[in-house]
Design a protein that fits this description.
By secondary structure, this protein is mostly helical. It has one domain. The chain contains eleven helices and no strands.
Length: 294
């Protein structure tokens, strides 16, 4: 009897250990649901908000280009347009046009149902999306190399690195799709989307900072301490969040990683919902409606 009890306790202890290891690696059912829904909610919020901003870019910047009133560009960021600078103007025009396209198309590309049920559509949109991303990066780099940004060396460095990373992610996304290495393709596509929404978050971050901190560290020449931070902050956290998403989605991801990821997704969703509401109400919506109604 004693031997049988020892054996039962050993088996029970072994099973408990296996359960702890499994739960640590795969998460508990409640945490799995939290992770799934927080991830899905963040993705849906980002898709809707980015699409609205993409339409705004096409309406405001693209509309000014078609109306030949490019001086309007300088209202949002001084120094974007200067008459007589054909190469510089062409570079930033390509950047804006392609940027608006990738924000709208990126939302479609990341919908699982489109990838599963309409693979041909996914591939064709993907070709346009990657090409537009590549052109957006090249256009921005052309502007920086021929003229430079208003914020000087720090802004040139931050935005230049952003352009290089955009081109790199576009190339890698296409390369792994051609090689049929779909897990790598998806990872690089997510990184590319994280960079694509950078211009959208740049404006949103500044909007919140001006509201909450009254623009501390920001100067009209974009050379204040906050401006220097923003030269990198509008895309580096996005990439870190994607890396966290990729690692927490793996089956071997341990409990703490999934819990931290879920918390980060909830906070990011709240930030995006609030920002999207106010920016659509005050800026994006009026510009889109003005272009549509003429």
């Amino acid at each position: 009897m004693a031997a049988r009890a020892d054996t039962s306790e050993h088996v029970l202890g072994h099973n408990n250990a296996e359960r702890v290891v499994y739960e640590t690696a795969h998460g508990r059912p409640g945490l799995d649901r939290l992770f799934h829904y927080s991830r899905a909610t963040l993705a849906a919020t980002a898709w809707v908000s980015a699409a609205l901003f993409g339409l705004y870019i096409l309406a405001f910047y693209g509309g000014a280009l078609s109306d030949r009133t490019m001086t309007q560009w300088n209202r949002n960021l001084p120094g974007l347009y200067e008459p007589g600078s054909l190469v510089t103007t062409s570079g930033i025009a390509v950047h804006f046009a392609a940027g608006g396209i990738i924000l709208v198309l990126g939302c479609i590309q990341l919908i699982p149902a489109v990838r599963a049920r309409l693979p041909a559509l996914h591939r064709w949109i993907g070709r346009v999306y990657v090409s537009a991303s590549f052109l957006a990066g090249i256009g921005g780099l052309t502007f920086i190399l021929t003229r430079g940004t208003i914020g000087g060396p720090v802004m040139n460095l931050g935005f230049g690195l952003y352009g290089v990373l955009t081109v790199l992610c576009a190339v890698q996304t296409y390369r792994y799709a051609r090689a049929r290495q779909l897990s790598q393709h998806r990872a690089w596509a997510l990184r590319l989307f994280a960079l694509a929404i950078g211009s959208w978050l740049y404006r949103m971050d500044y909007g919140f900072w001006l509201l909450l901190a009254h623009g501390a560290g920001h100067v009209p020449t974009f050379r204040g301490w906050f401006d220097h931070i923003m030269a990198f902050f509008f895309y580096v956290p996005n990439l870190l969040l994607v890396e966290l998403l990729l690692r927490s989605s793996r089956k071997e991801a341990w409990f703490g990683v999934r819990l931290a990821a879920s918390g980060a997704f909830v906070v990011a969703t709240g930030f995006l919902l609030l920002g999207t509401y106010y920016f659509t109400k005050l800026y994006w919506g009026p510009a889109i409606l003005h272009r549509l109604t003429g």
